[in-house]
Design a protein that fits this description.
Chain lengths: 514, 323
């Protein structure tokens, strides 16, 4: 990393490590940030970027390693210390109070007052200045924030961060919710910040954007820093190679299965929460992988298909029946089964028993005259627990007491119990242990052999490459490429997901000029 | 980026919304020939105002609680307890001023307990105040020996007198107290750091915490202030009845909450105004008054007020649509 000798780094992190239980989230990461530098932090989901930023902000303490700001030791006890150290975080999820006005939000916790009486004039002036600074003087300080567009809200967050006299601004996926035009303005703001000597840590999955805006980069993979340097002269494919590393696919059990006739086809399906229409087909005995970045529209597509989100157009044909706009109960009766990506919030009722969770979508076998027959339910669920190798004390145990992997098995068992023929699995292996992961891969293969169709959404490329017959890639709301798995490799998938094209074979400078 | 619709009109509608409801209610009864004459008289307005005092005081505090995202089900029990304490103190020979202060303080302590329990035990306000509803009511009955406490007449009983003693006052002292406090609280909610923090906590508590606001402190203060208002309301209740009755005001907390909600308060927090709340109180009072004059039975009033709550909140929702 090149550094001017006269200017010591604003921030230095050395050998920072952090473990959560058995998972090593960060493993001896070092990082330097110069004054007025825009430094991109790059890595796949789960590479350790957010853990690192949480440590920096003081939200969590590191297990080992040290941090310095301007050469002084920096060991924050909480987020308040981070703020005092001049570190401002702009989070992905917006942290504004929707009912309060722009002015009230920007000044929140820093009100100008005399003995508790607000000095509204002074505050309005400061807010106007801040909005001027971020080049959005047209945003009125008096408008409630909930009336603003997502982009404008982001601008308000940035203005708030600047007012905090931040010296280091951390932006976590700042453009994921922004339009092209607003992203453009954000880059201008970043340029302005640089001019004022503010340093920016810029986290993004959109590599072209990163190329444009950042002076230097650090790539994290599996909690380690695997490369850093000046952005100038670095090729996109180099970054992608660093992100994916050398990964093998041979640990994925290959269950032989034959692809049969088409059972599900989407034709121009458009939903209220989908940004562009999607067409694809899925056959019996096929495992179709869906790759893409978080927020690329994969979950929205599944939810629209299943009927959880409103469909606005296009068609969904399931074994010959038109299903677009069907409600979830109708989808289930046609053989669809959805495994939610939000296991704890939506997938399972954590306070209820394994038995109730597993049979929730189909109580029919245990019902007589409207009464539940708990004995039968217990026996049936007991069999499933054995079959799925779920580590639970019994059908009556609360699901919330199980480990993540076992919870996921219960959620998956529910789909099998309801005899779903088309399984829509949204990040089924996220946050679960390796053994459970391997078991889930094997089941997915078994299910395909039984002739079930599987739509497998994952952000983890090796598993997609390892078990899928075909992989389709989503980029910014739309399906951009679909090919048989042998025609894909990890860099190609990553390129399609981050750039929207499978082969980033021109030098970057040309593509930006396009 | 921020598309602004005809902001002027929108703003006017937002401010006037509850007033339109009030105007409609008054217009309705003014147009009915049977009651027209009696309804529109100053004497009637005066009695409506006096009847509103107890709910209005409770609603002032409740507005703060609801704006902060909370709820207080113990308000009515707190009013009863405070009225009993006031009567008890006067009966025991305390100076009326001391008795009144004791009554107000009692309410404040119950509120403080609510706030402390909500923040320390991290229980939801509904549960804490549901418990406090029983505790305060039980305490009131216990202290009063399960019967009314008679107290000698003092100036404290004139607070709610329909014809105020210096007749130039025109309205009962209690009504003036409500007006003054309403203005004061509206100013606090709008023009102080505290008021702004109350809105912030109700609108997005984690954002407020992230911005360095001590959310627990804000909540404790909110419940304590609301408790003081219930205490004062209890004093007014005693003044009106001239006895301390532990069984008074049962179910009144729902009227208080209804007033805040009709006035634009959102039970999800972050929304509400003192002016709106006061209009909400007046809407309910005029409806009761008008219905009584029409000779309509009680149950009709209940049905109408129930419908008004649903209609008011639906209109409010429609107004916010598309934001």
């Amino acid at each position: 990393m090149s550094r001017e000798p006269a200017a010591p780094p604003v921030l230095r992190m050395a050998g920072v490590s952090k473990s959560f239980g058995a998972t090593r989230a960060l493993d001896g990461v070092s990082f330097e940030l110069g004054r007025g530098e825009v430094h991109a932090l790059i890595g796949e989901n789960g590479a350790g970027k957010s853990t690192m930023m949480k440590i920096l902000s003081g939200a969590i303490p590191p297990d080992a390693g040290r941090m310095e700001i301007d050469g002084w030791p920096y060991a924050p006890a909480g987020p308040a210390d981070g703020l005092r150290g001049g570190i401002s975080m702009i989070y992905q999820e917006l942290t504004l109070a929707p009912h309060l006005t722009v002015e009230e939000n920007i000044m929140l916790g820093r009100e100008v007052h005399a003995a508790g009486w607000l000095d509204r004039k002074a505050m309005k002036r400061r807010v106007r200045e801040a909005l001027e600074l971020v080049r959005h003087p047209e945003i009125s300080p008096d408008v409630p924030v909930r009336k603003l567009s997502v982009g404008a809200k982001q601008v308000v967050e940035i203005a708030r961060a600047l007012l905090n006299r931040a010296r280091i601004v951390v932006m976590d996926e700042p453009t994921s919710a922004l339009s092209q035009e607003d992203s453009q303005r954000l880059f201008e703001i970043i340029g302005k910040l640089k001019g004022q000597g503010v340093s920016v840590i810029y986290i993004s999955h959109f590599l072209e954007e990163v190329q444009r805006v950042a002076d230097s980069y650090t790539v994290l993979r599996d909690g380690r820093g695997v490369g850093s340097g000046r952005m100038e002269g670095t090729l996109l494919e180099d970054l992608i190679q660093l992100m994916v590393g050398q990964k093998f696919t041979r640990f994925f059990p290959k269950v032989e299965h034959a692809v049969g006739e088409v059972i599900l086809s989407l034709d121009g399906l458009k939903g209220a929460r989908m940004t562009s229409p999607v067409s694809l087909t899925l056959s019996r005995g096929e495992i179709l992988g869906i790759a893409g970045l978080i927020g690329a529209g994969r979950t929205e597509m599944l939810r629209t298909l299943f009927g959880l989100d409103e469909a606005e157009g296009g068609s969904v044909v399931v074994s010959g029946f038109e299903m677009a706009g069907a409600k979830p109960w109708a989808s289930i009766s046609r053989g669809l089964g959805l495994l939610s990506e939000d296991r704890q919030g939506e997938g399972l009722a954590l306070g209820r028993s394994v038995a109730d969770n597993m049979t929730m979508s189909d109580f029919a076998p245990y019902r007589r005259h409207g009464f539940l027959r708990p004995g039968r339910q217990r026996r049936a669920v007991g069999e499933w627990i054995g079959k799925m190798k779920i580590k639970a004390k019994g059908p009556a145990q609360k699901v919330g007491d199980l480990s993540g992997g076992n919870q996921q098995k219960v959620a998956l068992a529910r789909l099998l119990h309801q005899k779903a023929a088309i399984l829509l699995l949204d990040e089924p292996t996220r946050g679960i242990d390796v053994v459970s992961k391997a078991q889930i891969y094997e089941w997915i293969g078994e299910l395909a052999r039984e002739g079930k169709a599987v739509l497998f959404v994952s952000s983890y490329l090796p598993e997609l490459l390892g078990i899928c017959d075909r992989i389709a890639v989503f980029h910014r709301g739309g399906l951009v490429e679909s090919r048989p798995t042998p025609e894909w490799d990890a860099p190609g998938l990553m390129a399609a997901a981050t750039v929207g094209r499978a082969r980033p074979d021109h030098p970057i400078s040309q593509r930006i000029a396009e | 980026m921020s598309r602004q619709r005809p902001a002027g009109l929108q703003k006017v509608l937002n401010v006037l919304g509850p007033f339109i409801g009030l105007a409609l209610v008054i217009a309705l009864f003014s147009l009915i020939p049977e009651v027209q004459g009696r309804f529109l008289r100053f004497a009637n307005f005066k009695s409506v105002a006096t009847q509103s005092v107890i709910v209005a005081l409770g609603a002032l505090g409740m507005t703060f609680i609801i704006v902060s995202g909370g709820i207080d089900l113990s308000a009515a029990s707190n009013i009863a307890l405070s009225s009993v304490i006031t009567a008890y103190a006067i009966n025991a020979g305390a100076a009326p001023l001391v008795a009144v202060l004791l009554g107000v303080l009692t309410g404040g302590l119950v509120g403080l307990a609510n706030g402390a329990l909500v923040t320390r035990l991290r229980l939801i306000p509904f549960i804490v105040t549901l418990g406090m509803m029983g505790i305060a009511r039980g305490a009131a009955k216990w202290i009063a020996g399960n019967q009314k406490i008679d107290a000698p007449m003092t100036w404290a009983n004139e607070l709610m007198a329909r014809s105020p003693r210096p007749s130039w006052l025109l309205l009962a002292p209690g009504v003036w107290i409500v007006i003054l406090l309403a203005v004061a609280m509206a100013v606090v909610l709008r023009y102080t750091v505290f008021g702004r923090h109350v809105f912030a906590v109700g609108s997005n508590e984690s954002a407020a915490r992230l911005c360095g606001i001590r959310t627990s402190r804000v909540k404790i203060l909110v419940y304590s202030v609301a408790g003081l208002f219930c205490g004062l309301s209890g004093v007014m209740e005693f003044s009106r009845l001239t006895v301390g009755d532990p069984t008074v005001a049962v179910g009144l907390e729902l009227d208080i909450i209804a007033a805040v909600v009709i006035g634009g308060g959102s039970l999800n927090g972050g929304e509400g105004s003192i002016l709106g709340t006061m209009v909400g109180v007046m809407i309910m009072s005029f409806l009761r008054n008008g219905c009584t004059m029409m000779g309509w039975p009680n149950y009709i009033q209940e049905i109408i007020i129930g419908a008004i709550i649903v209609i008011a909140v639906t209109l409010d929702r429609l107004r916010h649509r598309g934001e």
